[in-house]
Design brief:
Strand content: 15-25%
Function: Required for disulfide bond formation in some periplasmic proteins. Acts by transferring its disulfide bond to other proteins and is reduced in the process.
Keywords: Disulfide bond, Periplasm, Redox-active center, Signal
Number of domains: 2
Radius of gyration: 20 Å
Distance between the termini: 19 Å
Organism: Modicisalibacter xianhensis
CATH topology of the largest domain: Glutaredoxin
Family: Belongs to the thioredoxin family. DsbC subfamily.
CATH superfamily of the largest domain: Glutaredoxin
CATH architecture of the largest domain: 3-Layer(aba) Sandwich
Protein name: Thiol:disulfide interchange protein
């Protein structure tokens, strides 16, 4: 799930942790014929093996999202199964977001204006608003009509009105700013693409656990019991 780089070519004394990959000059790129990759631990060493067993990589893997090396299988599992927005330097409030609740534990929900399951989830979340703070990030996962409503949401005159309209399904009549800056909306689209969010609801718990879809037992899932 997280973006990683495996390398054995960087000099050991440099260390991947000291490299700003956003400023690295790339001389040449060749796409490898690899459809999948597995991390394999053997004799205390982690190897990365292609799905067909042809290619094996050794060396240090670096997580570009969190700017840290991936040295253990536990870190590999965490990178594949969890998303830590703050460690990415991505605050939910900086996206196309409204917030519900006052609790100390924060949960982020990527939602679509026309998603019925998302609306049902939002109704269920109201019961936990004293314990949690829920960030609803509005994206257009369901097509052009959703895109129009999600962009309209980003131009709302009032966050309170935007939350009410989102929960009630009345974004089409939401009052909006006459001169709207869509940069936050564009940032949200890029972030959702980066995280491969292709379905909603997409829920991120306060410990980074991810639910692709509405959790079967919301309370247990929020508590980390499954």
């Amino acid at each position: 799930m997280a973006a990683c780089l495996a390398s054995g070519a960087v000099k050991a004394q440099d260390g991947l942790g000291n490299i700003d990959f956003s400023k690295v000059e790339i001389d040449r790129v060749i796409e490898l014929p690899i459809k999948g990759m597995s991390a394999v631990e053997s004799n205390g060493q982690i190897l990365f093996i292609s799905a067909n067993g042809r290619f094996a990589f050794s060396g240090q893997m670096f997580d570009l999202w969190y700017k840290r090396p991936v040295d253990t299988m536990a870190q590999v599992e965490d990178a594949l199964s969890r998303i830590h927005l703050q460690q990415m330097g991505l605050e939910p409030e900086s996206l196309n977001t409204v917030t519900m609740g006052t609790g100390s534990r924060e949960v982020t929900i990527f939602t679509d204006p026309l998603c019925k399951a998302c609306h049902a989830l939002a109704e269920e979340l109201k019961a936990f608003a004293d314990e949690y703070t829920f960030h609803f990030v509005v994206i257009p996962a369901l097509g052009d009509d959703s895109n129009k409503l999600a962009e309209r949401f980003s131009c709302a005159q009032s966050k309170d009105e935007a939350l009410t309209a989102l929960l009630n399904g009345t974004l089409a009549t939401l009052p909006i700013q006459s001169d709207c800056d869509t940069s936050v909306y564009q940032k949200t689209l890029m972030a959702s693409h980066l995280m491969d969010i292709n379905g909603v609801p997409f829920v991120i718990a306060d410990d980074g656990r991810v639910s692709r879809g509405r959790p079967a037992n919301l309370h247990q899932w929020l508590q980390g019991e499954y």
